[in-house]
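Weekly structure sync, notes
Attendees: PL (lead), two postdocs, one rotation student
Agenda item 3: pending single-chain targets
PL asked that the sequence for the first pending target be pasted directly into the notes so everyone works from the same version. It is reproduced below exactly as submitted, 186 residues in total.
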Amino acid sequence: MREILVSEVMTRDPFTVKPDTNLLECARKMVRKRTGSLLLVKNKKFYGIITTKDILWALIKKTKEDLTEIRAIDIAPKKNFIIKPNNTIDEALGKMKTSGFERLPVILNKEIVGLITIKDILNFHPEIYPELEEFAQIKEEEEKLKRIEEKKEKTNLEGICEECGQQNLLQRFNGMLVCESCVSSK
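Predicted structure, written out during the meeting:
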């Protein structure tokens, strides 16, 4: 099977705003266009990307300021991950996984030519969905196991301390069941 290129899957006319557009206008455009992100573009040059999460963050962190006073470029992430149209969708997925972003601007000769998202890839290549679902399940299970281990570490049991030999409430410490006085003495 031939490699599928980003240019075959990407959205060719993504929604854009100028970098100095205020957040209220960005939010209005996102609602009107039913999109979760806007590319910050001026004269076809890419400056960043703003998402609904960024606007919500600004609402919470900068409540004293009016949304018309905050520019999109001021809250857009400073680090941007981009991809070229001749890259493969496997390379795009890899970049999305390592960066943690679900969308990548597509740049050619320093100009914006499109946007590729997880949704674009899944619509074109749905057979990778089980892999993404499995990846999410593995991550969720790892988090559950970590919480269980943390809870085990904090659980107090009654028994004989493996350090001093006294009967007391015990807790796990460095893989041993020890009393509180032995934990505090270390």
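Discussion points:
- Residues 129-154 form the longest helix (26 residues).
- The mean pLDDT is 84.
Action: rotation student to compare against the earlier draft before next sync.
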